[in-house]
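Lab notebook page, bench 4
Experiment: in silico fold of construct C2
Operator: M.H.
Input chain length: 222 residues
Purpose: comparison with the prior construct
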Amino acid sequence: ALGCQTTHSNQEVLQSCSLVIFATKPHVLPAVLAEVAPVVTAEHILVSVAAGVSLSVLEELLPPNAQVLRVSPNLPCVVQEGAMVMARGRHARSSETKLLQDLLEACGWCEEVPEAYMDVHTGLSGSGVAFVCVFSEALAEGAIKMGMPSGLAHRIAAQTLLGTAKMLLQEGQHPAQLRTDVCTPAGTTIHGLHALEQGGLRAATMSAVEAATCRAKELSRK
């Protein structure tokens, strides 16, 4: 219906395409790589989005000199606002890596990082979507408690997160600087920030990222 070519043969994909994205569940990936390995050439760019499968494992399952990269996306890719990181294997060339990065940026923001950061990205940005949703929900519920209708409160909370994120990205400011700019002596914001500190928001958030990252590392070892 969309005009895309489809096939039931994984080998046929590699015979027709130079850049191939492996978007399988981690436990399925080894069987798929074994299936396509006979037709992999040094010119293929092989990209895995399977969480927890290391570059070394990918390279072990593919022919020598295969160009392998890992990508860690997050859910906002579906609205072209993803935060993605990518790591390259030993044989991936700079030009091919740049090509992949350019393609991925159609779905948001993408940066090349050392592979050691991949699990941290999962804790920060993959799981972080849920953490931000909890905070957005809590912001709105605070307004609901003070008398604002629910739908309006949730829209304002989401727009506040969006606008703040744009300011941080476009102006390149550290969050602490923007936070300071909003605070006035004896004003509303500093009173609210004091309440957040009393509730342990900062420590709880850091612990959430740590817990999610540790779980990602545990799954990677498995």
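Observations: The two ends are 39 Å apart (CA to CA). Strands lie at 19-22, 45-48, 67-72, 82-88, 108-112.
Next step: discuss at group meeting.
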